[in-house]
Amino acid sequence: MSTSEQILTTPRSPISVAIAGAAGKMGSEAVRTLARDARFRVTALLVRDRSAFTPPADVPAAVYDDPEQLLVESPPDVWLDFTDATSVVANVDRCIAHRVRPVIGATGYSPADVARWDEMLREEGIGGVAAPNFAIGALLMMRFAAEAARFFERAEVIELHHDGKKDAPSGTAKRTAELIRSARGAGPDTPIHSVRLPGLVAHQEVLFGGSGEVLTIRHDSLSRQSFMAGVQVACTQVMNITGLVYGLEHLLW
Fold first, then answer.
1. Which partner for 34 in 40, 54, 108, 248 could form a disulfide, CB atoms 3.0-4.6 Å apart?
2. pTM of the full predicted structure?
3. pLDDT tens digits for 111-148?
4. Does residue 161 carry a catalytic annotation?
């Protein structure tokens, strides 16, 4: 039994999903994964250039390059966003206005956006999920780092990603630093070091230094399939909540 099958419950079946950024590496992996899962129905795909995109033959989804047109013509239960920092905020604002639940995998939004989306979603009586990382192992890495922060005064984060990743530091690294700061309650900030090289996918080390010892907590995503169990969790559980959940871990423990 897969991780997602162990922890998912299905509130309604199938859940219709629109995938924004469907031509990208994460978006295309999500298209393949959700299309194979009977709990979901991929109904619409958003891409930058519709004329240059051919959807998989086994995914009978409408293709759009205009998010407003998608939401009017093919409104889904869930909007899964793997776009970028230039698009994500407007996309999420728009889908909430159409009473569509966002699951946000893109980065580039601010804490003020998170607070505003939570308020908007509560007013509409629907839920949303913003996940800096969908990999279950990465979530556990962050949880263990927060636990270790109670015992070590100094820590640094090294995050390593493929050379096509636009943002630095990564959302996962920033979230890890936030959790370390929250666990300590006080103390020095946690420096973050970013590496962008071909051949990498997504990797992170959290190094804690103490008197005569070093603790290293590391997670490696070797393929984008590592994120899909978390995507399935988010797209299912978003149907059961009201307001915005920031961090997939809040749906797991």
1. 40
2. 0.87
3. 999 999 999 999 999 999 999 999 999 999 999 999 99
4. yes
User: Domain coordinates of the chain in residue numbers?
Assistant: 3-130+226-251, 136-222
Fold of 3-130+226-251: Rossmann fold (3.40.50)
Q: Which residue is catalytic, options 98, 162, 165, 193?
A: 165
Contact between residue 18 and residue 79 where contact means Cβ atoms under 8 Å apart = yes
SS (H, E, C) 181-208: HHHHCCCCCCCEEEEECCCCCEEEEEEE
**Catalytic choice (161, 166, 193, 250):** 161
> Which of 166, 177, 190 shows the shortest CA–CA distance to 141?
177
pLDDT band at 10 (very low <50, low <70, confident <90, very high): very low
- Angle made by CA atoms 175, 21, 111, in degrees to the nearest 5: 30
Which residues contact residue 172 at a Cβ distance below 8 angstroms, ignoring those fewer than 6 apart? 132, 133, 138, 142, 159, 202, 204
| Rounded-to-integer distance, Cα 248 and Cα 179, Å | 13
CATH number attached to the domain at 136-222:
3.30.360.10
How many CB atoms are located within 10 Å of the residue 150 CB?
10
Q: Over the stretch 20-32, which tens digit does the pLDDT of each residue have?
A: 999 999 999 999 9
Q: Specify the amino acid at residue 18.
A: A
Q: Is 219 a catalytic residue?
A: no
Select from 219, 223, 88, 63 the least CA-distant residue to 141. Answer: 219
User: Mind giving me the DSSP string for 61-121?
Assistant: -EEES-HHHHHHHS--SEEEE---TTTHHHHHHHHHHTT-EEEE------HHHHHHHHHHH
Measured between alpha carbons, how far is 128 from 98 in angstroms, rounded to an integer?
13
Joined tokens for residue 167: 């943002």
